[in-house]
Amino acid sequence: GLGRAYALAFAERGASVVVNDLGGDFKGYGKSSSAADKVVDEIRAKGGKAVPNYDSVEDGEKLVQTALEAFGRIDIVINNAGILRDRSFVRISDEDWDIIHRIHLRGSFLVTRAAWNHMKNQKFGRIIMTSSAAGIYGNFGQANYSAAKLGLLGLANTIAVEGRKYNIHCNTIAPTAGSRLTQTVMPQDLVDAFKPEYVAPLVVWLCHESCAENGSLFEVGAGWIGKLRWERSLGAIVRGKNQPMTPEAVRDKWEKVCDFDNASKPRTIQESISVLSDALSQIESQGNVSMNSTSSGSVVSSSAGIVGRELATNVYTYTHLEPILYALGVGMSTKDPDHLKFLFEGNEEFCCLPSFGVIPAQTSMFDGVPSLPGLNIDLAKSDLWALFSKLNLAMCPCSSFLTGQLTSVSTVADILDKGSGAVLLIDVNTYSGKDLVCYNQFSLFFVGAGGFGGKRTSEKAKLTANPPKRPPDAVISDVTTPDQAALYRLSGDWNPLHLDPSFAALGGFKKPILHGLCTFGFAARNVLKQFADNDVNRFKAIKVRFAKPVYPGQTLQTEMWKEGNRIHFQTKVKETGEVAIAGGYVDIVPALAKTSAQEPLMTEGLQSNLVFEEIGRRVKEMGNELVKKVNAIFQWDITKDGKTAMQWTIDLKNGSGAVYQGPAKSSADTTFTLSDEDFMDVVQQKVNPQKAFLSGKLKVKGNIMLSQKLEMILKDHAKL
């Protein structure tokens, strides 16, 4: 069986082996030396070193003494002894229960204890406990055996903790193999297929001095090995401060208690208990908010009245500095050549990261929430839970003009009762003039404000989407700096939670945490680069849920999956494996096919031709003066039905100026692309150039600083 396979495997690699076997049957009856002697003879016949031992594992001291007398030391203990007394639960006798625990659990304890001090003194030891799938999962007719086998796992975990500082490692295996025991519960063909030799290599590796594994559990059999770990749901708080905990509260939170989305995977008792400390902190922070669903708390009295209410309107004034500062805050660097278009206003493709659209919206939201009449909630106890952001293509407020204003209007979309807190859904529409530039939906979670009997879900909420169940198509890692939060806050999020250690401690954090929207910005730019080639015009919408905090200095790992025009993603903290952003996705616009160079231009019926002809006549009259003022060459690519229909060049750099059809004869300083219809709206002042750019209708390449001079030309010389 397994013991023979282990003994032969270790002996083949030079180990001196004590082969212990009492020699009884699978039920523990009888005694014989033949089983141990046979294995020892096999080892010695191959030139190996081995001695037999016929003691019961309950005489652990004698067994270990055999090793010391024969070889002078003991380095490895493999607890493999076992018997079966299978009965259905109600038929298990006291003797059946006791003998199973005496051999499996108590025997492993006694042998390991006898070897412990020798391993401790030599600063080396490797111990294997043998559990079973029956102990891990349960099995009919094996209640006694299952209890003992799972007990071995608990014993091993504690030995691993206590032995770590002495270089004593203890691991547990749950093998499936043909043996004297399994012959009674497995068909013969499976007994023959599950060879013990398919288990032994794992045991040999775990006992090697170079193996660092400790305190782990493995299932093994048939040439397959799998590691097991504990998984715990995020759970739910089911009581409020100074309030009783009731079965009804447990019932109401049961779905959350059993929800394994973004589950944690604790490995130590400290990690296990820490969640209780966090829960106590959250309960204490609730004040006297009731968790009773029949309570007439302060939230319920006014929640219906605030839905649909418009909050404060906020005007956001910007220059090129704001989007550059934002780009630096979310990790962009001049070390990456393709980042320069987001960091240097003089770059010919200078533009703004699409995720910058949350900045003016966030300012509007937080300005309005505290002023909601009748809503008795504490903004300091809020967490940004989720975010949806949709843009009218490029959100680059300073790509064509140096200054401007955006107006954001916040509205309460809905309020939800999550029991331990309330979720406020806030819609924010951001405008340039009357044109909608960006729409954001923020989900704010207010700790302790729930339990007012409201609905748990809303059809107005933008939902997250789980990623495909396959390895990610792309992974990008970014190491944040210790000052990442200090830099990002300069974009307008001044919450001291992200900078002040004492304030962070009040929130239950060991140190200041990174802004969730900073992590969001890292992820958004990674998707933009990986799947849209940094083309901001292809970035349509993004949705995320904030799951776990990130500390400045940690590594953000963005994992991405492409499904059509939707890019699913999640962000993990590489050091801990915890998911910080879950259920995220970005919707992108497909890349447009490039127009063939040989395809003829479609000039017929273009209204813009008349405008350029008129500009040409005016340039002939005032060319010298305009060249002195402007000193630039502008190229216009006019489109129709998505394809380039005509090109015009306004040369106000050479000679007395010129306007002509076709691309610039020498390099253009600035190139503009827009449709014939949109061009007419601009020159007729139905839409100003800034709004056209913000809505994605006008695209600019080259020296964007010169665009202001062109606005003067269109205004003064294109009135027909």
TrEMBL record:
- Residues forming the SCP2 domain are 612-715
GO MF terms, alphabetically ordered: 3-hydroxyacyl-CoA dehydratase activity; isomerase activity; oxidoreductase activity
KW Isomerase (keyword) present: yes
* Record InterPro entries: HotDog_dom_sf (IPR029069), MaoC-like_dom (IPR002539), MFE-2_N (IPR054357), NAD(P)-bd_dom_sf (IPR036291), Peroxisomal_Beta-Oxidation (IPR051687), Sc_DH/Rdtase_CS (IPR020904), SCP2_sterol-bd_dom (IPR003033), SCP2_sterol-bd_dom_sf (IPR036527)
Q: Which GO terms describe its cellular component?
A: peroxisome
UniProt keywords, alphabetically: Fatty acid metabolism, Isomerase, Lipid metabolism, Lyase, NAD, Oxidoreductase, Peroxisome
Please tell me whether the keyword NAD is annotated for this protein: yes
Q: Main localization of the protein?
A: other
MaoC-like domain mapped to chain residues: 465-581
Question: Where can this protein be found?
Answer: Peroxisome
Every Peroxisomal multifunctional enzyme type 2-like N-terminal domain range = 316-448
PROSITE patterns xrefs: ADH_SHORT
What does the entry give for GO biological process?
A: fatty acid beta-oxidation
Pathway field: Lipid metabolism; fatty acid beta-oxidation
Cross-referenced CDD domains: HDE_HSD (cd03448), hydroxyacyl-CoA-like_DH_SDR_c-like (cd05353)
Superkingdom classification of source: Eukaryota
PANTHER family registered for this protein in UniProt: DEHYDROGENASES, SHORT CHAIN, SCP2 DOMAIN-CONTAINING PROTEIN
What is stated as this protein's family in its record?
Answer: Belongs to the short-chain dehydrogenases/reductases (SDR) family.
- Spell out the protein name for this chain: Peroxisomal multifunctional enzyme type 2
Query: Gene that codes for this?
Result: Hsd17b4
